[in-house]
């Protein structure tokens, strides 16, 4: 398919779901005009990029994330590294999106802080396979590199560069919000989540990547990890329906060591010598230990 065809299909998709969006500057509704821009009633204009995403952040951000990190993250996601997590999240979402006989409801799922988009895309595929066919995924991230990578790779969801503090969405549009290993803005999440919708927040548990943590702890006196504060903050904003701990060990091929150490923020500040030591550890398995907080308003 030519680039222009893809662009036109994406523009149509934005137009079809334009009611989801509101202007991040003035909060007014937006509509797709001339197959190329989202325009608000005050004439603030946001163009569809050539890769098919919309830049809806009122400010330009530089994040610590870079192309290599997103490429590494995608490599790990496609290796099945997060598959049990995605499966568990899909199970929670199914509780809220059950297909009802004789009724077709169109569902909207937001991934807030979607990075390069693998989680959203994989979870959307799983939901579709389970019969949730009327579903639009929307991925937002403050990182332009992440969103550009997402929209180049995954054609189905709508992708936008956006700022968590000014989510460019109208009130109560989403039946589900995913927030995976990523910062939150609970006031905005509450505003855009529907009355009956659910939010799934994923946070690391004590043993997440412990094989790597051990190395850094030796090095830099990393504090003991606790997510108590995160859980209580979540409970201040949402009714906690369920907290599921997902723990497993993932077998690592030698060629996954490099993307593994590059994908995690743990590696920020690591020196070449540290990375060399990780490679020399000949890791055969790595522990994934995460907590899914499932809440509703
Ligand atoms: Zn506006």
TrEMBL record:
| Zinc is among the record's keywords | yes
InterPro entries found in the cross-reference section: Methyltransf_25, RlmA_N, rRNA_m1G-MeTrfase_A_prd, SAM-dependent_MTases_sf
Domain Methyltransferase intervals: 110-193
Q: Which domain of life is it from?
A: Bacteria
GO MF entry, a single one: methyltransferase activity
Gene3D superfamilies per the record?
Answer: Vaccinia Virus protein VP39
- State the protein's name: rRNA (Guanine-N1)-methyltransferase
**Species, as recorded:** Paenibacillus kribbensis
């Amino acid at each position: 398919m030519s680039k222009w065809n893809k662009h036109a299909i994406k523009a149509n998709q934005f137009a079809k779901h334009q009611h989801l969006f509101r202007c991040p500057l003035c909060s007014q509704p937006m509509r797709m005009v001339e197959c190329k821009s989202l325009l608000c009633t005050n004439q603030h204009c946001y163009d569809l990029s050539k890769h098919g995403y919309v830049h809806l952040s009122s400010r330009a951000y530089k994040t610590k994330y870079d192309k290599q990190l997103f490429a590494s993250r995608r490599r790990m996601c496609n290796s099945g590294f997060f598959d049990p997590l995605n499966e568990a999240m899909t199970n929670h979402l199914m509780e809220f999106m059950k297909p009802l006989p004789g009724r077709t409801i169109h569902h909207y799922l937001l991934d807030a802080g979607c990075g390069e988009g693998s989680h959203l895309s994989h979870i959307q595929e799983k939901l579709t396979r389970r019969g949730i066919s009327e579903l639009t995924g929307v991925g937002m991230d403050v990182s332009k590199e992440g969103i550009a990578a997402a929209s180049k790779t995954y054609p189905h969801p709508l992708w936008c560069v956006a700022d968590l503090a000014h989510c460019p969405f109208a009130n109560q549009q989403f039946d589900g919000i995913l927030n995976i290993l990523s910062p939150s803005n609970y006031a905005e999440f509450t505003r855009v989540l529907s009355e009956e919708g659910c939010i799934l927040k994923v946070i690391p548990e004590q043993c997440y990547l412990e094989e790597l943590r051990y190395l850094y702890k030796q090095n830099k006196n990393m504090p003991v990890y606790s997510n108590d504060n995160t859980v209580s903050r979540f409970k201040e904003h949402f009714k906690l329906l369920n907290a599921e701990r997902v723990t497993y060990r993932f077998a690592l091929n030698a060629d996954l060591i490099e993307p593994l150490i590059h994908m995690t923020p743990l590696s920020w500040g690591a020196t070449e010598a540290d990375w060399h030591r990780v490679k020399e550890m000949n890791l055969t398995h790595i522990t994934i230990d995460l907590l899914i907080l499932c809440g509703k308003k």
